[in-house]
Amino acid sequence: MNTLSLPLNIRRGGSDTNLNFDVPDGILDFHKVKLTADSLKQKILKVTEQIKIEQTSRDGNVAEYLKLVNNADKQQAGRIKQVFEKKNQKSAHSIAQLQKKLEQYHRKLREIEQNGASRSSKDISKDHLKDI
């Protein structure tokens, strides 16, 4: 009868926790940092694009307002101005929130690039959970 011999570091059970990986912690930390940095860079691009879209929309609202006010009487101009100001405030608020988010992403990216793996994996996991 032939028997297969298994290395001693493979245990019975089927659980992933029983596997013995000979991978240094530094490599795993590097990959976590790289993945986190890449994720932040994607978020920065997305938020930057959202800001551009919101600014374009705001510019369109301004152009529309100017066109409408030019052709309106005094009473209509007052109503048009109220509607425009409301839209403009919403737009300004959205842009401010997006810029704040962008600054936070840039700050996190700088921290990760400067500190690298010194940041605990618990903190990185918290960030990923927040994003989800």
From TrEMBL:
Q: Name one Pfam family in it.
A: Tmemb_cc2
Q: Please name the InterPro entries in this protein's record.
A: TEX28/TMCC (IPR019394)
**Annotated compartments:** Membrane
Instruction: Identify the keywords attached in UniProt to this record, alphabetized.
Output: Coiled coil, Membrane, Transmembrane, Transmembrane helix
Superkingdom of the source species: Eukaryota
**Chief localisation class:** membrane
What is one GO cellular-component annotation here?
Answer: membrane
* Annotated Basic and acidic residues bias: 120-132
Question: Segment Disordered: which positions?
Answer: 111-132
> Which protein family is it in?
Belongs to the TEX28 family.
Q: Per its record, how is this protein called by name?
A: TMCC3 isoform 3
